[in-house]
Structure prediction request, 752 residues.
Amino acid sequence: MGAFRTGLLPHVRLSDAQFRSRHQALRLILWMQIPILATVGVLNDPFGQEAVHHATWALPVMGIAHMACAIGSLFVRSRRAGSFLVSLGLLLSAALLVSLGGGRTELHFAFFLTVGLISLYQDWLPLALSVALVVGHHLLVGHVASALLYSDPPSTVRFIQYALIHGGFVLGGCAVQIVYWRFTEQAQNESARIRAEAEQALRRSAERYEALVQDSSDVTVVVGGDGLVLSVSAAMERVLGHRPDDLVDTDYNQLIHPGDVARLRSALGDGREEHRTEVRVRHADGDWRWHEMALRDMTGHTAVSGWVINHRDVTERRLAQDRLAYEASHDALTGLANRAELLRALEREGAAAVSGNTGMAVLYLDLDRFKQVNDMYGHEAGDVLLASVARSLHRCVLGSDTVGRLGGDEFAVVLSQIAEPDDAVTVATRILAELSLPVDVDGVRIVPGASIGIALSTPGHRADDLLRRADTAMYHAKRDRSGWRAYVEGMHDPSTPTATLEDDLRGAVADGRLRLVYQPVLSLITGEVTAVEALVRWDHPDHGLLLPDAFVPLAEQSGLIESIGEWVLTEACREMRAWPGVRLSVNLSPRQLDTPESADRLLAVLARTGFDPGDLTVEIAESACIDAPEMVERLAELREEGVRIALDDFGTGHSSLRHLTRLPVDMLKLDQCFVSELNGTQAGSAVAEAVIRLGRILELETVAEGVETAAQAAELTLLGCRSGQGHLYAHPMAATPLAEFLRAHHVAAKMS
Ligand code: C2E
Ligand code: MG
Ligand code: MG
Prediction:
């Protein structure tokens, strides 16, 4: 029985609502039976029939029972009792119908119809009642009043048989119903299970999503098309310290660093659906944090209608990257740019200068006394000095310039966007002034001192070429202790093999490729030409006309300077012989006074060319005379013959005043760097004034070099300088134009 109940009987009860609606319908049908049965009864008049008159009690009993069920069903509350009464009433209706219809066989179908109706209760009790009632009714009524059941009453054996057959069919109908319920129930169970599983999966995935969004270190923000925040995940508070609710309906851009807003906007506006970018986002504590963002356009999705932005804090990674990049591009000791970074800056600024049509220069700086500092005070002191130099360099340049350390005691400065080449010179002299101040290194005062080479950018030159040029110029500045030198085309690079250039130069002397130009020296008072200075040029087959800076140092190194110097003196004397009233100045290299016969050889040239020694001035760099007593002797020999001696580039060397009084000198040539500093201020004229005053005290003539403007000439005159040369009056020129110039400037009158 238990197996029957669990295996076969339905397990699912109708819901109350289902039961109620079916019960009401069946009750209605039950009530509708009353008029139907009355009508059938009136039409058939069973009481009038002979066959049934001996069982007239049966019909009223059944009718009353039927009515009792119909009325009772209106009052009972319990489902079981209600369904029982209605089912019983319906079965009695079928029985009444058969009886009132005279027991016609077709009317027996009413029982099957009733079983169908009763099965709507989906309950075994009404069905069991059907079977029991049909069998019981057929047995009882068949026995006591068979005319009420069968139109053709059967024999006793037969009516029992009929009762069982009818009951069997009803039972079969019930069984079919039960099987049907079972199948429907299984199907329902299956779909309920599938639905439950689907619901559970959905719930789990929602939970997972929730957990992901809420607990992840990624912040999810949904931003509407108008830029207002629509929703923010809880991670916002943990990651950026803002309470999500505080952000809703605010402008999302307020969270973004102003420098990154435009980038974010342009990313959103380029029509793509997905973006990745890195921007700085404001933390509640006011700091900016780097966030990697994944943005997805879901403005078209009605459920979202905005941009879904996922951000993740990548500040640590960015800082590490920045630190690595910084270390890869900076010098650890000084924090300055390293060589690689400097070359990059050079390339960048070079390109910017070309496109912006401005100038760019690089200064190459080498400390003068670094090795001694290292040797005397140790490497730590050396490091302190380098760090101090780095700070000094920063003080001398603009923020847009790049200062770098190339290694050892070599530094470089990239000057971006300089208006004119002189700006580079200004910076170089400023740096030299700064580095001439003593630095306190562990209690010892050290003057770093430096030499600077300047190279100006020219379009099309590579960064490393430019740096090499500045290096070359620095080498020259260091060699002739001039503080700074600007690179000139063809300047000899000490690091490149000199053999070919030296061979070329040797050939030049032999092949007559050297040229002479002359620059007039004028009286600043009368404007008359008083002298000319011979300046050598080399007409190089590949490099064109080279200036002395490019080959004189090489000639000095290789010893060729002696033959070059002799050629210059010979040629100058020969050409200037025609202008006896004009003094001739010739530059001498210290190497030309090397040997005891030097003076004799020079005097022999004068004799050979018939040039009056009294009309010749030899110029020798101030720096060359300092430590060479023999040289002083040879200059004295020349002077005895009437040749006048000039100290060239005066002011840039390091001669002491005491030393100066012992030198056989007639003239000081004020170096052009001091002339260029004249600008009407006391500071600008300080050195020029000192040199001119010194000249006057020592009774030496002072000639200003490199006079370029009338203002400089006026100031020099005011300071007491009487002679000058420079582009203001005349550029160096060949002999023929010089003759024109001399004629025009009335020196003819002096000719005898
Ligand atoms: P220096 O003797 O001081 O010659 C003056 C330099 O100033 C010349 O350069 C001349 O062209 C340049 N100069 C003249 N006026 C101006 C001006 O107004 N502005 C500017 N910026 N520069 C001006 P240069 O001819 O290139 O000669 C450079 C140096 O080469 C000379 O300096 C001298 O030391 C040396 N040098 C020239 N010729 C000879 C030579 O025959 N033998 C030797 N040993 N050295 C020579
Ligand atoms: Mg000179
Ligand atoms: Mg000079």
